[in-house]
Amino acid sequence: MDRVAIVHENFRRRVASADLPSGAEPNNSLTNEEAVGLYQAQVLSRQLDRISRHMQADGEGFYTIGSSGHEGMAAVAHALRPDDMAFLHYRDAAFQIARAQQVGHKDIDRDMLLSYACAAADPISGGRHKVLGSWDLMIPPQTSTIASHLPKALGAAFSIGAARRKRPQHSHCPADGIVICSFGDASLNHSTAQGAINTAGWTAFQVTPLPLLLVCEDNGIGISVKTPSGWVEASLRQRPGLRYFSANGLDLYATHAAAKAAADYVRTHRKPAVLHLRTVRLYGHAGADVATSYLPRQEVEADEANDPLLHSVRLLQQAGAMAPSEALACYDRTAQSLASLRAAIRQEAHLQTAQEVMQSLIPPPRRCEPRGPLDDRARQQLFAGDYPGLQQAQPMSRLLNYALTDLLAQYPEITLMGEDIGRKGGVYGVTQKLQRRFGPDRVIDTLLDEQSILGLAIGMAHNGFLPIPEIQFLAYLHNAEDQLRGEAATLPFFSNGQFTNPMVVRIAGLGYQKGFGGHFHNDNSLAVLRDIPGLIIACPSHGADAVRMLRESVRLAREEQRVVVFLEPIALYPMRDLHRVGDNKWMDVYPDLEERLPLGTVGVHGQGEQLALVSYANGYHLCRQAQTELEQQGYAVRVIDLRWLAPLPEAALLAATENCQRVLFVDECRKTGSQSEALITLFQEHGRSNMARLTAEDSFIATGPAYGATLPSRSSVLTAALKLLQG
């Protein structure tokens, strides 16, 4: 007999014989009716775990990380309001069921069975994954990426205070709401959790409103590795800025009382708190996991003897709310009801085609209130001494500053956040004066933690804001890339488009910084971004395009709910010249306010048909230099700027090169994993020939005079072009 069956039979036997565990008396935090309702939620959670194992064994179900042992979370849900946004640990089925009870949602059992079956009718993921989540219940879906939901929960909590000052059109968290985020004791040790908890304390320490309730469900083990006794309390109790609460998660009444006290503290003081719940884990980690293979049988059986359902039966009996016989009857009725539901959904359709699976990668557009730019007089006041500069040629960094100023003025829901972007104005001055113009609540100087920066943005986007976070250097993104891959980009996919977190992530990157910083400030690999489904990557090469593309990126995020990475080439921020010092041919006048460059378009310079040079960012600058020299030698050349690196502007690019005899792809990223690989493949698939590529070497970038040794150069572009033309 497996452990699932053993726990089931032990429960039935012990309740039938009134052989119940000892423990504290029930307190008066719950009425009898409330306590019975929470027990029913606990029972449904347990029986769903049992039936999920049977479904998997019969090929009808595909996910068996269960909630058994964590059923006390039903009491936590009851202590909160149903409009408090909840980011849940994957063992929190009881929480979702209890919240469904709060709002009178009658079909939560069927909904969750559909999810276990990966049925297309699953109301949250549409058959893409078994996730806890519901739009009606204010529970965004969460998969099993460890602790990755803590940073965005912090961001959502921060957004509630921000929305009190400027409420966005699409905000749906109440002004007095709080955010709950639950996680396991093993996840507590993850750097993402530690960073988020530190950021919560850092924020509260500065008396900034942050109504966030963190719940650590401590079952004492992570898969097979035990948590040291006392570690969770020692780690959480003395955190600056966080109030610590604790309870025995096996005790329905005690859990509710502690959760109510913690939630009331967070709601009243607008400060974060942590609730430490001691739980047990039943059935092992997941379906294929056998706990007795790494734990002594005595320990496994001791946890099973502490089954929270047994404690609930005892407490209900002591409170006079329900007799053990009634509790057992409820348990059996629930099993029978789920068996009937299982039979009813057995024929539900599943996703079959790639198109069906991918349908929710791109979220649906949303209706946005039209907002025009400021009138000229208001802009003069806003820009003040910078206003005359709008009519003069400027480098990219200055033009981006102007664009951000106009966008912040036009859209009150836009919020910038990042390291050094406020008072300092950014490492390269792109955000200068913006905090002075719009205030520290819209241009936020964050602590040094990229995970928390992106999490802040994701969470604020959950509540209707349009965040523009900044990652100071592309190399720093690797500290936090899972916030894009595992959270931002997957949310529409796993919620069937119901939940989104649209934003524009500004990242300064790429190479050619003339010896400054080496690899840590010159990162010429975009591979980690290019393979994220649904992500848009914009990469401008000169100032006017940067402005037009930033406006389009904001439109894509605001109206089409997309996640956009706006990659800004650092070496081109101050670039003024094209061919020689002082020619000022790489500066532009600030474009008219209505000008944008739509996603999927390319830039074309020249009409030559002998050779097309295809590039982006710094490579486009080099190609323009090489173009002039080639034309002086009598060759007819055109240069194409990709602009949008994901999704690649395939149709526009093929059209722009259709009548060209040869094509050279110039790619400043490394040979392996670069854009050029995809471009060569694209052209071959369309029957094109006479192609070549010039890329950076598969190397990191050196500091000092050798900064450009591994990168394409003006001379290497010229040499590669002549070789192709003459070959």
Descriptive report:
Helix 2 packs antiparallel against helix 11 (308-319) and helix 2 (32-57) crosses helix 12 (324-345). With 727 residues, the protein is α/β, with parallel strands linked by helices. It folds into 3 domains: 3-346, Thiamin diphosphate (ThDP)-binding fold, Pyr/PP domains (Rossmann fold), CATH 3.40.50.970; 376-572, Thiamin diphosphate (ThDP)-binding fold, Pyr/PP domains (Rossmann fold), CATH 3.40.50.970; 604-726, 3-Layer(aba) Sandwich (Rossmann fold). Strand 6 and strand 7 (225-226) form a beta hairpin. The strands form 5 sheets. Strands 11-10-12-13-15-14-19 form a 7-stranded mixed sheet. It contains 25 helices and 21 strands. 40% of the residues lie in helices and 14% in strands. The relative contact order is 0.09.
Question: How do you describe this structure in short?
Answer:
The protein is built from 25 helices and 21 strands.
Can you tag this structure with a few keywords?
single chain, 727 residues, alpha/beta, Rossmann fold, 3 domains, seven-stranded mixed sheet
